[in-house]
Recover the amino acids of this structure.
């Protein structure tokens, strides 16, 4: 029986993958975890003789990524390679890449590959060049070392993705993101095998794409912050080179403040002064769906910009139109009566269907947020599921409903990374879960997208809001459902996160930049300690009613230096749990190391010359120090007085109130420890 | 008498500026130091009411920089401004900017401004919009704080530059630098009032500019790393917006390996296989100056690209042509005889004069490195002085010679920042020095340029090689000659350096990125300690004969994490000097703090899991620890044995040999301390 129980325990970690897979996942920090991996006894040494050889020069993608691979390998290992570019003929110490055909990127692209590491050669084979790219990313993650050398351990991997749509959406409207920000994030996406960049190009806060037909757009709706058509092409080509499709989103008919600033005559409310929005939220400006000129405008615009985006899918937004300006406009009401459109939803469906015809003419498939899934909407549209419990619906419900109704569909509910929730939260959202689907229904579920809405992020902080959590989401989309062990994921994620930094991501290094700025370049150690146990307020609590932060507010504050999944918090929480369960020397020491660090941290904090940016953190640091000191003392002496317990409780209460838009995420554990001390150490 | 001596001391610091100026320079961290600054008792508070108002909307430059100023102000202070954009009418708490005219950038642009800070208003006035930009940069540097608020202290500044040409050259051939690298460096240049970006676009290692007339260039001479013409325009517009001129350099007839890879028929040696160069140094491939096709090619190319660069000056390189392939080519020798060109210099002058005619037709002035200054070269050319003692000439000699011969001229000798020499070295190079010049001669000396050759820098490390030293060079070019106090410069530079980080520069933060990569994300504290006393090998010693590092070699090694002017070295050297002079408690403690840090650092280092990148540093860390421990012990106990002294000397000798391309820059001080210990503490 015992053996069976053990087996059940292991399979609950790795399900169908079984024990061997589980052991390997402790050993190799691969993410996303491949479909199948076997070990052999080989070792491919990384020395200066290593070369790459490609079976064909038809794919620019493979050649470019292979060159980049050589640079990354060299930088990672410090090895001075003799050959910095792919060589024609294979020899010893060669990485042999072969593929059968060059793919055109679409939802049917074959991304599978095999990877075989032997002593003298590494073979990556794939049906398409895209599969070869995916294999090279896995290979880079396999590089490891001992004291004297870097090498790639002998493995054979057979890999293929679970979902065909593994996306990241970046909102460049609320805060404009220059193309170098996009490029480094595309590199990171490719590193974790994501394949769709959804570019949320327009919203109330700015319309970010140059139009030559309507230059009023960039003149009036962008604050000068937009992509030229050449830059759009540059990003699309960059993404394609990495095997990533680009889906543009032009959000209509709502979220239209910016575009109506340039073209107020297309708005639903007469004599309304439209202006670029500076706050966050859902706003009233909406295109007028009853005007021919609206469709003429959109057709001209779409005709101009669709050639920039070779992908078949085109996102028209369609979300969060509350129809207030439609209700207030008599002509629109009359139009509804005349066309027998009972509700504003019907009117929007009328609008969407007109748009779909325009897009179809241009060879595009219409995609929209799940509000577009109305009874009359043709199933040729693609439903982007985003609403859930917060909007009064079942989480992910619109995804399943869409699939059952015959719509292609993509899930973002559960992957809203701007809500600043833990990686665990997102990782445990499975697009399908336990729902039973027919093959036809299953085929409609394309995959998912993490969404980086940018109300609260700037180019300086966006990476730390996307990464590393999105790597775990990427695994959810690529790997089988059974790859779901959270602790193992976190272990691998820690390695992947640091490796992503080598692509130029700023998610780690910009913390210190912000802290240096906050302190006027004083010693930031005391603040670093605090960032490791403080997290930014979650689920939009940071920007109450959307008006605390405007688009031009400062975003290099303490909350911007803090990240989700604060580094010390989860370890401390574990340490407290262990100690309470087994208060032996090891668990006691482990716990005390945290308490003593926080206890003494206030002294370091106090050495700082205060200024208005640091000063508000002073009570937090002081209170944390006080609680930590008392608890450490109690644990060391096994004694604490009732009045000290009272004092701790009071201090913990004070610590509960968030300051400077962060919350201390170890309060629950400190509370447990206080209760434990009360029970065990008061006499 | 005493008073007079004091006065002499002070004026030796600040010369004609006198005592008041000196005191202010201790107080305000402005760089470059303005021509005239006076204090008043006002304080302009930074609160949410602060606005900017501009007297005219004719200058896009002022509007854009003013918006950027508001963002920087907000980020620096954490103040949530109510108005994120310039406002039309002035009111209380307003920064009033006014200028008389919009400048076209050239060497005659008036860059002067006045700045007046009062309690309720700040007034920046300038003759041109460019002067207004310069004033805004000074204003940002004035922002300061106390515990409770940020404010701008009451001052009146009248400022104007000493030289009209204050440049930074970036070589994008040896290592390609993407445009975001250039943009952030342009921002930094503007912050220290530099006004010329010299773009070294071509060399043996790559020709980095797209040609539509000769697409073979990007296909064969770039490895795919080049700027499209749209990107060139983007950078030029970005620079212009900051008041920075852009001077392109197409280096001919030497440094031509890349271009001859695409067009071997223009080379001087028949049947030679040209290829993009991967090593560093001076190479033989040279354009053939006797062929009509060479001039036809250059005329077509220049005709295509000169419209991208509105500036009048056009740099044709002209340096380091050793003429080996000319000597080996009979046709070229015959051509020389026929045209009575005695030397290869004469032949190159023939070439240069033909080029000048082509450029003149295109409205451009020819500029070249100082080899072009041959007896027959017309004085319409501009001489870029670079050679000095290392090339067997007087340092800066060609600058003065050029001016005296009537050439416009710019100095780079002494400002080769890729030589990895101290900021002090560059700061003390004055373009004119004590040479007496007529007004006419003086007017020919336009200014100077720091040169960032890129054999050993990548996008990851280039910022830390340019900054902060270039800010001190910028001061040399802007401020009066009498602003030359080195200690005061270093104090101000420390502040400016950290402030530059807010522009996105990576010169500080990328150290830790490299160290994390080296250690596989272990604790980097032990390595940070070493980076603060180690510097990369200087004056090209790192890349012996130019062949140790190829363009594709790794550049994220320990040497790449280290910088010139290592942080702890100069402080330690001072501490040793102080101790030897006055071994009191304070000086002893100060010294011991360093020795004890290094002594214990080996323990931290030893805790690292070694790998091939860290292992070579182990002896350095160990030896440093041993020496530090012995010396600390000697100083504390006032006793050391002769055999210990011998041991120290042996260890210091071992430490003298550079490892991993860095040198320990505290050896001289450790030696002094050892000798002191021997004299005072052996019994």
């Amino acid at each position: 029986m015992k053996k069976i129980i053990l087996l059940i325990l292991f399979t609950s970690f790795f399900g169908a993958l079984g024990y061997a897979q589980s052991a390997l996942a402790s050993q190799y920090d691969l993410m996303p975890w491949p479909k199948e991996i076997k070990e052999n006894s080989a070792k491919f040494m990384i020395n200066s003789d290593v070369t790459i050889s490609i079976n064909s020069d038809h794919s620019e993608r493979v050649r470019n990524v292979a060159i980049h691979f050589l640079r990354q390998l060299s930088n990672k290992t410090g090895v001075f390679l003799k050959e910095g570019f792919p060589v024609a003929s294979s020899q010893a110490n060669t990485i042999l890449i072969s593929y059968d055909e060059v793919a055109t990127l679409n939802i049917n692209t074959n991304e599978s590959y095999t990877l075989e590491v032997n002593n003298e050669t590494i073979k990556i084979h794939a049906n398409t060049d895209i599969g070869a790219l995916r294999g090279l990313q896995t290979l880079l993650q396999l590089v490891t070392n001992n004291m004297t050398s870097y090498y790639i351990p002998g493995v054979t991997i057979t890999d293929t993705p679970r979902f065909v749509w593994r996306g990241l959406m970046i909102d460049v409207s609320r805060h404009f993101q220059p193309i170098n920000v996009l490029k480094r994030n595309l590199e990171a996406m490719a590193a974790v095998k994501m394949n769709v960049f959804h570019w949320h190009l327009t919203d109330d806060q700015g319309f970010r794409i140059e139009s030559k037909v309507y230059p009023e757009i960039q003149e009036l709706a962008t604050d000068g912050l937009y992509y030229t058509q050449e830059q759009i092409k540059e990003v699309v080509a960059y993404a394609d080179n990495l095997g990533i499709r680009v889906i543009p989103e032009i959000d209509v008919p709502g979220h239209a403040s910016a575009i109506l600033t340039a073209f107020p005559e297309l708005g639903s409310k007469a004599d309304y002064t439209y202006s670029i929005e500076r706050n966050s939220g859902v706003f009233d400006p909406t295109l007028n769906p009853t005007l021919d000129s609206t469709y003429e405008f959109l057709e001209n615009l779409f005709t101009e910009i669709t050639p920039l985006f070779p992908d078949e899918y085109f996102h028209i937004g369609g979300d969060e139109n509350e129809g207030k300006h439609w209700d207030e406009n008599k002509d629109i009401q009359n139009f509804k009566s005349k066309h027998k459109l009972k509700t504003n939803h019907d009117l929007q469906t009328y609008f969407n269907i007109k748009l779909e015809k325009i897009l179809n003419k241009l060879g595009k498939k219409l995609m929209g947020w799940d509000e577009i899934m109305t009874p009359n909407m043709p199933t040729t549209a693609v439903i982007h599921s985003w609403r859930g419990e917060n909007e009064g619906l079942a989480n992910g419900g619109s995804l399943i409903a869409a699939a059952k109704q015959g719509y292609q569909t993509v899930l973002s509910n559960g992957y809203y990374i701007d809500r600043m929730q833990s990686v665990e939260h997102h990782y445990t959202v499975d697009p399908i879960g336990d729902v039973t689907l027919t093959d036809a229904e299953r085929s409609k579920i394309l995959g998912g997208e993490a969404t980086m809405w940018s109300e609260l992020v700037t180019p300086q902080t966006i990476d730390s809001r996307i990464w590393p959590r999105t790597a775990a989401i990427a695994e959810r989309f690529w790997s089988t459902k059974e790859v779901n062990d959270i602790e193992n994921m976190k272990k691998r994620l820690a390695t992947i996160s640091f490796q992503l930094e080598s692509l130029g991501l700023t998610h780690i290094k910009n913390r210190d930049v912000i802290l240096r700025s906050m302190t006027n370049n004083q010693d930031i150690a005391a603040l670093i300690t605090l960032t490791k146990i403080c997290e930014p307020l979650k689920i939009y609590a940071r920007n109450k009613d959307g008006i605390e932060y405007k688009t031009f507010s400062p975003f290099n504050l303490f909350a911007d230096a803090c990240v989700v999944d604060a580094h010390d918090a989860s370890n401390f929480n574990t340490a407290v749990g262990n100690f309470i369960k087994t208060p032996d020397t090891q668990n006691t020491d482990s716990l005390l190391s945290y308490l003593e660090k926080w206890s003494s941290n206030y002294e370091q904090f106090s050495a700082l010359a205060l200024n208005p940016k640091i000063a508000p953190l002073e009570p937090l640091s002081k209170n944390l120090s006080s609680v930590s000191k008392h608890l450490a003392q109690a644990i060391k002496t096994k004694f604490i007085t009732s009045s000290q317990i009272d004092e701790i409780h009071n201090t913990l209460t004070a610590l509960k109130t968030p300051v400077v838009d962060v919350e201390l995420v170890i309060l629950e554990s400190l509370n447990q420890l206080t209760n434990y001390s009360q029970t065990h150490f008061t006499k």
Remarks:
- The radius of gyration of chain A is 27 Å.
- The first strand of chain A starts at residue 36 and ends at 45.
